[in-house]
Every structure is written in structure tokens, then in C-alpha cells.
């Protein structure tokens, strides 16, 4: 066991002596401004700071912190990238991604493809699943560095001030993104603000902190990882576990307690927690028998019976749509050509029908693949008098809600599998699934597969 050394950070006795030391005016004149400033700050230590006896786990140290950091270094960019890609999938060029106005944080846009049809589902499954799986790792990383939060002064140089500010953005950003993301999965519009807007700008706060923090800490992370062998630590029992040498960051306890678990056990505990989260989440993406275990995505549970027994995020009741709205008087209105075209459901069923097996996926991470039957959107465009549509503006009967309309890109309108669906899995659509007609387009975000369609405006290029 390493013996305490004078001047090491985290030593409560040394910290107390440093805090009680007074700065002689003559010494101050001979010192540069930053140096006597930091020494002066050390004299006024707030209660609770510098008490290393609170953090005496022998597992804490640069190596374990760097292991968790390395995992997050690889995986958090994937979570961030898939989140930004999801924003692009909503086609911000049509002003329908939230937030609409993003200032200079505008992303490079591209036409979202329709194939492979499971592209959006895969993107969101990775985003949500990986974000949830990393929660135990994020918590373990925060546990490993908590002694640094109680060092005083919090910074001893301008470089450390920059590091602390980046850490504030990083930790605050990741906790906000995880917290709001989990709540959005569990509850329906629980926030008093726009989740999408907050999540978008929160992601950029995290990105800023992440980039700066990695630039500062990457050399130290690499050095720490090389200081010990992962294979060796996985073979080390609790009885053989020893503290790391004292470090300049104050992570290692000066007077550590006896270990209650090995580093191998700590890594196993965190890994098991992540595995459990994966088991309780992944079923909503892969479907089948695994879906019954997907307890962490309750808004993606199945509703309805028989052929319509799959996920519904928004019911007809929530959208204020009743039988009268979709009864015999319902008409689909097609515009964009010389004259509006009105069709009832019988006329739509009399048109050539096309069947496609397509997934539908939600921003919250669930995905389901069903067999849809209906009229091709490009056939409806031709009927409306627009042979080569540049886009399609779809309106819903829905009276309330943020997604009562959607604009489809040219490739989405013209794709042979893009449908105004009338039936699913061999049966008529249920009211909750969009009866009398709904849009279904390959690789399109679920909320833009508009339900209860009342009109489609086909626009020329």
C-alpha cells in the first residue's frame, strides 16, 4: 500500500495545512499573479472540500477511470451521430424537423433514402439502445471521478479552468440528454417544453464539452490505460487488489480502505448492468419473442387485436378522431393538378393495389415490420395530374398534435413501395392505426407516416 506523501492532492491533513497557510505580502510581490491568486483561493476552502476520507475506495484511480472513459470515447459519438442523423431524416429542408430554427448549428442536409427500408429503424434502435446501455457506464465514470469534485481550489491554473468548464458542459450535457431521453421514452409529452428542441440543443452543449475534454484528457487517458494490463486486472482477485499509485488528479485515496470488490468485479458489475438494460430494451427492435421483455420502452407496447396488434403511439381518441370523422362522408382530396380530385374509400379500393412488407419505426426506438396494402403514392400523383411530383404535402384529420402534416421528398413519393395504405396484414386498418387511410413510406420516421389522411397536395419540382 502506498504511504501518504506530502503535498499530494486529496490528503486531508495536507489540504488543511495548505488552507491555513497565509500568504506574506513580500512573497506575493515576488510571485506572478496566477500563482498567488490560486494560493489565496486555497485559504478560503468551503466546508466539505478537500476531505479525502470521504472517498476511500481503493479501486479509484486513473486506470479504472480511463477504462470507463475509453468505452464512452468510442460509444458516445455513435449515440450523438445517430441522433443528428435522425434530425436529418425528418427533412429539415421542409421546415418540419424540430427545432425549425437552429441558427448556425444547421446540419449538412441530404435527401433521406428510402432503401434499405429498415434504415431509420436501425438508426433509432442504435441511438436509443446504446444510449440506455451506457447509463451504467456513465454512472460508473462519474463515481470514479467524484473525488475531483471536492478538491479545493477547483482549479490551480488557467488550463484547469478550461478543463473544468469543459467537464461542466460534458457532464451536464450527458446527464440532461440521458434524463430527458429516458423520460420521453417512458411518458407521453411529460415536459413543459419541447423535448425535441431541448434534446437538439442539449446535444450540441454535450458535443462542445466532449470535444474540448477529449483534446485535454486524451494523452492522460492513453498513459493511464498503458499503466496496467486489462488482462492482468481481470485475473486479479479481491484479496490481491491494491490501490494505484497516488496521482496528480487526486483520484487515488491517500488512506484507502480495504477492498470489498476487485476491479474485475467492478467492471463485471457495470457490464452486467449494461447487459440487463440491453435485454430489457432490444426486444422492441428485433420483435418476436424478445418483445415481451422490452420493459424499458412502454410506449412501444402492442395495442389492438389480430392483424392490427402492433405498436400505437397515438390513438384516435388522443387525436380527437371518432367514427363520424371517418365514416361514409370521408373523402380523400388530391390537389396539385388542374382540378382537385376527391375519392372515397371504395374508389381507392377499386384502384390497383400494391402490397409491401415494410417496417415502421419511432424516434423512441421501437420498430415493427408489417404487411401493408394500398395505392401507390405515385399512382395517386398521376391521378391528380402531376406526373413527376417534386414533393407531397400530406394532411391528417387530426385536430391536435405536432405531427398532423408531413412533406414527403421526391424519392419518397416516387418509390414503388410508398403507399397510401388501406389494409394491414390482410385486414382493414383499425381506427387507431389510421383508418380509413394512412401513409406508409420505406425508411420514413414513424410520425411522418401520417394517419387518418384527409388530403395530399402533389407539388411539381
UniProtKB/TrEMBL annotation:
Superkingdom of this protein's organism: Bacteria
Keyword Membrane applies: yes
UniProt keyword annotations, A-Z: Membrane, Transmembrane, Transmembrane helix
Location of the region described as Disordered in the Swiss-Prot/TrEMBL record: 1-28
InterPro entries recorded: Mopterin_OxRdtase_euk (IPR008335), OxRdtase_Mopterin-bd_dom (IPR000572), OxRdtase_Mopterin-bd_sf (IPR036374)
Pfam families recorded: Oxidored_molyb (PF00174)
Keyword Transmembrane helix listed: yes
Residues covered by the Oxidoreductase molybdopterin-binding domain: 328-459
Sequence ranges of Polar residues compositional bias: 1-20
Single GO molecular function: oxidoreductase activity
Protein name as it appears in the record: DMSO/TMAO reductase YedYZ molybdopterin-dependent catalytic subunit
